[in-house]
Task: structure prediction
Amino acid sequence: MIKTIGSSSDPDLVEQLVKEGETWIKDKIGQKELDFTSERDFTETILENIEQITVAGTSLLLGKIFDEIGFDAIDDELFKQLVIARLCFPASKLKTTDFLSKYHFLSVEAQHIYRYMDKLHNSQKELVQDISYAHSLKVLNNEISVVFYDVTTLYFEVDHEDEIRKTGFSKEGKHQNPQILLGLLVSVDGYPLAYEIFEGNKYEGHTMLPVIDGFKNRYNIDQLIVVADSGLLTSTNIQELCAKGYEFILGARIKNETTDIKSQILSFDYSQTKEQLIVKQDGIRLLVTYSEKRAQKDKHNREKGLAKLEKKIKSGKLTKSNINNRGYNKYLKMDGEISLTIDREKFNSDGKWDGLKGYLTNTELSNKEIMESYAQLWKIEKAFRISKHDLKIRPVFHRIKRRIEAHICISFVAYKIYKELERQLKIKSSNLSPEKAIDIAKTIYAIQVKTPNQQHLITKTILITQEQKMLAKMFNF
Result:
């Protein structure tokens, strides 16, 4: 006890006593009250004693969520700063050092970040996945029984391959660039659960089981329903999923089915019922659905692809690279040695499939539940879109494998924070998107001033606009 100002049960008097107490404290620590009537006093006392001005909103908002998820268990401030920088200023690690220096007064050399990433590779990947899983389990009411898997490619701005960076089929059209495959497992609502990277020339269908098996075994999950698109559909995958006791919903390649099943699909009257369920010989169910909206889109895309081919034929710009069965090139037909024409019969035959979509499953779910579960796959596609465009996870500038893996780890944590920010905004009934909230946070600064007498450092967060005040109140900072 240093001093008693007074006591009262009168609210007005209590308020007055509080103000007296605040004044006494300021005098005690040597904090000078400013006379704003004197421009000279204001300039000399404040402006000449400013120690630094930093961007504070991003740390207050994203750092708070970082801690709430549980990532503060990783006792390393640099890790936290790298994750927040990936959300606010996604760039190379060299440019990240400039960002931390200019806006946060943190002096970090690029080589220090690289050495740190070497340590991160060895120690943090499993821990961040454990933290992410535990938090996702909590927000999903302790139930994770359905998981969604997909894979994408990340390219490198280099010419030469190595042990992990290989040229292969690029989903980004960068076929000439070495790449890696990134497999991502998410829950309902798109919360990230696990990830793994693979060689760039690996067939994507061979990446699914290692990720799912590792996740199931690590967390001792008895039963999982795996949802994936048709790009991961192989007979081997289906056999292994069945053998290991998984239930699954996979996008079906209905045009690749047996002649008998294709006949059943095309002969069904979808004008009466939009769904047809076919039980295959192995007991797996094939659900085929029809949508008028999808049919219109399929027809539009076919006609658009055909128009492009016709234009190239007329211009004489078709090359031997077009003589393959990819995309709409399948409508090309060679007559004689060099003459190319449009195969109208094949084009018209494909029209029979417009609007049809198939799902393979061994679950006992209803047709509606199967379609609703598969429809959730767009959230993992959104995850890749956010990672590539908002977090700028690619192109990847690292060369050493362990640093590539550390870069993916940082991006994984950044995406987890992004999803939690999105969830909290929804709970708070805010119409802000995560991107908008982060943009507002980037405009919130803090000023640090040294008091003239006692040389104490006083930091004040500056909230000026209504947007800034609204965000600070919403997230209590």
User: Anything to note?
Assistant: Residues 401-427 form the longest helix (27 residues). Confidence is low (pLDDT under 50) at residues 31-36.
